Structure prediction request, 123 residues.
Amino acid sequence: MTQTTKFFGILLVLLGLIGYFATGMASLTALIPAVYGAVFYFLGVVGENEARRMIAMHLAQLLALLAIIGTFTGILDVISWMGGNHEVNIIAASVRALMAILSIGYLVLGIKSFIDARRAPKE
Prediction:
């Protein structure tokens, strides 16, 4: 799961940078996914130490849940835009929606990993 966490972190950094440049570098808030990504990458690195893996991966799952809560409205905004509400900033909404979708996927993978680890026989 540590490799998945680092990969997820890289994806979020790229998403944040793409969003920032796509909006014409108008707002630093477009870099929020990049900040989250950097934290995920850091937690992935920390998790490579077996003694710290459990706490790092649990923190990463908590961070993913917070990311979902904070960005889920992006999915609703994209749906609203597709329904004809063109007052929505589609770039910002798309970045938030992608962050929410990626975070949901990461959370699901993490929960599956925790279940698999619990079911694995003790050595």
Observations:
- Helices lie at 2-22, 32-46, 53-82, 90-119.
- Residues 53-82 form the longest helix (30 residues).
- The radius of gyration is 16 Å.
